[in-house]
Write a structure and sequence with these properties.
With 108 residues, the chain is mainly α. It has three helices and no strands. The protein has a domain of 53 residues.
Length: 108
């Protein structure tokens, strides 16, 4: 048995659902702005572990729940940069620096 709604009834149901969702969000915003009204609606709102749409919206965490941060232990640092011999000497070359080293030629 297939039940199909006519186009006008489908639009009416969509409008009712949309209005209900918008109304729920607006009601949540009103309750977050007036905490006394929120406490009158349900007495559990004064508990520290109370979590509902109003408290999530007020705290700013309504898009995701916070998770415990897990930080892995940092890797052990190497004792030496590389294997070096006792006779190894580090040589540094002091080269002139030219700001326009890769610039186009003067007569271009």
């Amino acid at each position: 048995m297939s039940v199909r709604l006519s186009e006008s009834k489908a639009r009416a149901w969509r409008a009712i659902v949309a209005a209900g969702c918008i109304g729920a969000v607006l009601f949540t915003l009103v309750l977050s702005a007036i905490p006394q009204l929120h406490e009158q609606l349900h007495a559990a709102s004064s508990n520290a572990n109370h979590e509902c749409a109003v408290t999530l919206l007020t705290s700013g965490n309504y898009q995701h729940t916070p998770t415990a941060t897990i930080a892995p232990a940092p890797p052990a640092s190497p004792t030496a940069f590389a294997h070096t011999f006792r006779s190894f000497q580090l040589v540094t070359a002091h080269l002139e620096f030219s700001l326009l080293e890769h610039a186009p030629p003067v007569n271009s």
